[in-house]
């Protein structure tokens, strides 16, 4: 059901879909826990071994996998994993990645970091890549559990996914820190235990609700081969070159532009160059709307050329399907909204620890209020945000969540005036956690319901990555903005509150068109 249809009571949605809601919560735990393996747990282990902050700093490259997983997400839609594919297209990928992470943890348990960081780095990257791929499959599984257009069910699943992630990261992730000093073996033993936790999660995955059979859009391959035949091998080779160039440029950007200074200007130029390469590929390959039968019959493609055409089909068809179902103008407006929506929150988050330190809070106060309290607040208000979005609809949830998110930033402006007041800090953290969870649940649900079931993995990963791009790329200027303001923290937080206004104005202009589009999502297009 959509917002304009008869409203099914939220309690009835819970009763009807409790198995899928519980399944998404468990998979949220599976999504959040790997961050302990490669982030907090790993950092604590390396620090305990005696490595300096500088030596540990380069280790952050392993998180590259989460930034660029959209680049290989179409493969999760297309390919089946050997041996476990009978569990389903999505559960098969989830199981395989859980086993890979568990195996890497077992190997880590035998590694001595004092012998060098290289083995740690490579194993951590394996875990990161597997976790990022698992996230693609989990998001697709969540989307495919929902009947087309049922935004209330989607809102509840989004809430449980958020609550599950924080439970895996902060709840289950607290166990290694609680046990490391109480049992012999230190961190190597804890990584052995964490491999066991992953295997338990894998066993639970086997008993989750079975997904509907997934039908990859293989039928579109031949259409792309015919188009390649009509255009000729020369154009196909040019299109493939530009596709590869765009792919390589964005990978280079994601890993920090090795070889040149990673300045904001260079980042922007490389991003634009990659985008132009993809646009050039699209203009070459889609420049003809019809395919001449005589020309197709007169052109023979070799096996390599056919592979090129099918590769373009795998990566281009999810994008083409999204624009075809949504319409070009509405699709562009939605993409701009996704890019802008969370920028203010990202600016605040990027500078929050710096602000706490400059205002005068201690490390213990920062850890207690901004981390521990934030965990419980996020879980509790994710559930409340899911109820709000399920009861009143995802678009209303986005509007109200965006306004509340902007208002909560003003709490930090007040804190900047007051100084290191722990009571006010607790209030600011609670309000920020509430509004962040509320808006995130609506945002995740909104992205999810836009995706076609056939291309759910690729389309959700791409939309989510666009939102991440807005938060990470533009938020990199946050420190520069604070300096430009002469360290005026109250003014900075007022500015972050104002940053959400453009996205809300845009959403107000396109709301009726978006709602109309959501109302038509009763049978998403599964073909080209």
Describe the structure concisely for a colleague.
This protein has 25 helices and no strands. The protein has about 525 residues and is mostly helical. Residues about 1-5 and about 520-528 have low confidence and may be disordered.
Overview of the structural elements:
The protein has 528 residues and is mostly helical. The chain has 3 domains: 10-206, MFS general substrate transporter like domains (Growth Hormone, Chain: A); 220-325, no CATH class; 332-519, Growth Hormone, Chain: A (Up-down Bundle). Helix content is 77%, strand content 0%. The chain is built from 25 helices and no strands. It has helices at residues 10-16, 18-32, 34-49, 53-57, 64-68, 73-78, 89-108, 118-144, 151-172, 174-179, 186-206, 220-231, 233-254, 264-285, 293-298, 303-326, 328-341, 343-359, 363-392, 394-418, 422-449, 456-475, 478-484, 489-498, 501-519. Helix 7 (89-108) packs antiparallel against helix 8 (118-144), helix 13 packs antiparallel against helix 14 and helix 20 runs antiparallel to helix 21 (422-449). The two termini are 25 Å apart.
Please render the helix and strand layout as text:
Blueprint (H helix, E strand, L loop, with lengths): L9 H7 L1 H15 L1 H16 L3 H5 L6 H5 L4 H6 L10 H20 L9 H27 L6 H22 L1 H6 L6 H21 L13 H12 L1 H22 L9 H22 L7 H6 L4 H24 L1 H14 L1 H17 L3 H30 L1 H25 L3 H28 L6 H20 L2 H7 L4 H10 L2 H19 L9
Helix pairs in contact: 2-8, 2-9, 2-11, 3-8, 7-8, 7-11, 8-22, 9-19, 9-21, 12-16, 13-14, 13-16, 16-17, 17-22, 17-25, 18-20, 18-22, 18-24, 19-20, 19-21, 20-21, 20-24, 20-25
């Amino acid at each position: 059901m959509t917002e304009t249809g008869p409203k099914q009571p939220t309690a009835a949605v819970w009763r009807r879909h409790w198995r899928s809601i519980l399944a998404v919560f468990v998979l949220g735990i599976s999504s959040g826990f790997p961050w302990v393996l490669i982030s907090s747990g790993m950092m604590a282990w390396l620090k305990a071994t005696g490595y300096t902050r500088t030596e540990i700093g380069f280790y952050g490259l392993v998180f590259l996998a989460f930034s660029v997983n959209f680049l290989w997400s179409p493969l999760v839609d297309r390919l089946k994993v050997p041996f476990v594919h009978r569990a389903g297209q999505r559960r098969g990928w989830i199981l395989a990645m859980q086993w890979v992470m568990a195996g890497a943890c077992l190997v880590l348990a035998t590694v001595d970091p004092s012998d060098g960081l290289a083995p740690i780095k490579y194993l951590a990257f394996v875990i990161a890549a597997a976790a990022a791929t698992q996230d693609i499959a989990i998001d697709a599984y969540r989307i495919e559990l929902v009947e087309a257009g049922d935004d209330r069910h989607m809102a509840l699943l989004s809430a449980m996914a958020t609550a599950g992630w924080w439970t895996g990261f902060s709840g289950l992730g607290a166990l290694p820190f609680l046990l490391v000093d109480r049992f012999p073996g230190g961190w190597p033993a804890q990584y052995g235990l964490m491999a066991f936790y992953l295997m338990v999660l894998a066993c639970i995955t086997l008993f989750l609700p079975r997904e509907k059979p997934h039908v990859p859009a293989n039928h579109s391959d031949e259409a792309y081969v015919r188009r390649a035949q009509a255009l000729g091998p020369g154009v196909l080779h040019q299109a493939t070159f530009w596709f590869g160039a765009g792919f390589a440029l964005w990978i280079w950007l994601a890993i920090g532009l090795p070889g040149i200074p990673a300045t904001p200007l260079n980042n922007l130029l490389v991003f634009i160059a990659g985008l132009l390469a993809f646009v050039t590929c699209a203009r070459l390959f889609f420049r003809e709307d019809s395919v001449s039968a005589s020309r197709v019959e007169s052109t023979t493609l070799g096996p390599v050329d056919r592979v090129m055409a099918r590769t373009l089909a795998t990566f281009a068809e999810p994008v083409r399907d999204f624009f075809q179902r949504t319409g070009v103008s509405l699709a562009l407006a939605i993409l701009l909204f996704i890019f802008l929506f969370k920028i203010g929150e990202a600016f605040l988050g990027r500078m929050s620890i710096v602000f706490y330190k400059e205002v005068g809070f201690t490390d213990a106060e920062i850890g207690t209020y901004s981390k521990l309290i934030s965990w419980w607040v996020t879980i509790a208000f994710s559930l409340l945000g899911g109820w709000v979005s399920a009861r009143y609809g995802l678009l209303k949830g986005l509007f109200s969540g965006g306004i509340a998110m902007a208002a909560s930033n003003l709490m930090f402006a007040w804190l900047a005036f007051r100084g290191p007041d722990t009571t006010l800090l607790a209030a600011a953290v609670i309000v920020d956690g509430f509004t962040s969870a509320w808006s995130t649940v609506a945002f995740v649900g909104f992205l999810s319901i836009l995706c076609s079931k056939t291309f759910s993995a690729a389309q959700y990963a791409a939309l989510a990555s666009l939102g991440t791009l807005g938060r990470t790329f533009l938020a990199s200027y946050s420190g520069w903005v604070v300096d430009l303001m002469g360290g005026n923290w109250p003014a900075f937080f007022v500015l972050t509150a104002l940053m959400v206004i453009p996205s809300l104005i845009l959403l107000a202009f396109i709301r009726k068109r978006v709602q109309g589009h959501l109302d038509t999502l009763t049978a998403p297009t599964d073909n080209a």
